[in-house]
Amino acid sequence: MDAPGNVLIFDTTLRDGEQSPGASLSIPEKVKLARQLARLQVDVIEAGFPAASPDDLRAVQQVAEALSDLPNAPAICALARAVRADIDQAWEGVKFADHPRIHVFIATSDIHMRDKLRMDREQVLSQVRDMVAYAREYCEEIEFSPEDATRSDPQFLHEVIAAAVKAGASVINVPDTVGYMTPGEFGDLIRGIVKNVPDIERTIISVHCHDDLGMATANTLAGLLAGARQAEVTINGIGERAGNAALEEVVMALRTREDAYRLHTTVDPSQIARASRLVCNLTGIPVQVNKAIVGANAFAHEAGIHQDGLLKHRSTYEIMRPEDVGLSESRLVLGKHSGRHALRERLAQMGYELDPERLEAAFDRFKELGDKKREVTDADLEALIADLFYRPREVYRLVDLQVVAGRSGMPTATVKLSGPDGEEHIRAAVGAGPVDATYRAIDAIVPASARLLEYDVHAITSGIDAQGEVSVRTTNGTRVFRGYGADTDIIVASAKAYLSALNRLLTSKDWRKDEQTVSG
Ligand code: KIV
Ligand code: ZN
Fold this sequence. Notes:
Helix content is 39%, strand content 19%. By secondary structure, it is an alpha/beta fold. It is built from 17 helices and 16 strands. The two termini are 45 Å apart. It folds into three domains: 8-283, Alpha-Beta Barrel (TIM Barrel), CATH 3.20.20; 331-389; 397-519, Alpha-isopropylmalate synthase LeuA, regulatory domain (Double Stranded RNA Binding Domain). Bound molecules: 3-methyl-2-oxobutanoic acid and zinc ion (ZN). Zinc ion is lined by residues 16, 175, 177, 208, 210, 240.
């Protein structure tokens, strides 16, 4: 695991990624994603921050349990501030994992210590000694992070890290918490730690970079070149503010430029596309089309000269093959004449083991889709499963929708919804366009007042018969609720997405973690 050129991949999509505005996930969604991370063969999954809420604790426990029977299961890690109560909760979260890890952090920059912690350097140092040692009583593998390391006084940083190593930390993580450093500076910082901290060679140095200046991946790679052997990353680069270093970028950079880095990971890159789609579907956060590795245009070639070159020899304009990251199998898979057995097999290969009742529901939807589309691809199936099984409890359900739109006249939508007691409601509304009219008609039925903050639509696959995928974010004034819907008809997908956001709002007591404070 810690051979000299091996870089451990520590995935924090479920913790730092989930701190992305509007990205909160339910417990079954987290377990689903953790299973995909295991398929991707990451080394460590940071499953949550158990002291943050009872739901976070339960999520970490369920992820640990769900993966404990897998051969070569990743380590399961839980985050804790450097205080006893957090460490106790973190241990409660990971204690049933085959390979548990507790991640203890405390800020070490003057600005954080003075204005946030209201502690001086001595107090922080003694807290590090005591709390790392305390965590070490529970668990062999302790990771320590000096938060805001990149804005900390380097000498003090070395002292803190030395104290953590002495107290028993086996992984020292260096976070660029606010995404401030340049790659040159970050490499020097890591080299300084390697040179100045006694016994640092007994530990694994880890890097954790945020993307505020768009340098998270470059900084991560600079840290690895300087001696770090663990990279903390998230799928699609989601995370606090501008996000974290993206797993797919770090892994594919190391793989594609092995000549430059001479480092490798054990990640199976063919699972990257699926992991990326799953994160989009579950969080409702789409990937920009030009995003490296997983964006819709990452392997598309538009210019005539490029297409010509590509046809003559792929490597003229392609440094990676789409199939390396799992994109090829997402072309044609199933047609509308495929049966239950074929669907079950395909879903099982994709990691979905459905019980007979769920398989039947998926099969019905698959047939409906097959009538509208010639080929149902893996991406379509992912969307179908997300739409069917990973949505909030349905208080209101879309029964029917009819829209009249065009260049002249008034776009009008008539919506039929079934309500909480099974009664059906029908309303019609006129709007600025068909989606607006549909949303107005839904608003006339559902007793929840919500304002649309963001509406995003894109095609899941190419072709005129592609499914449309819609993600929305709405607010009731204080909290944000996201929604997701997929259908071959984008107005129906839009209605489903809006209704799922409203259902989250209506059931928000059960879905407390779907909320976030609106700030501007
Ligand atoms: O960005 C950060 O500093 C963190 C720490 C908790 C590691 O996420
Ligand atoms: Zn972070």
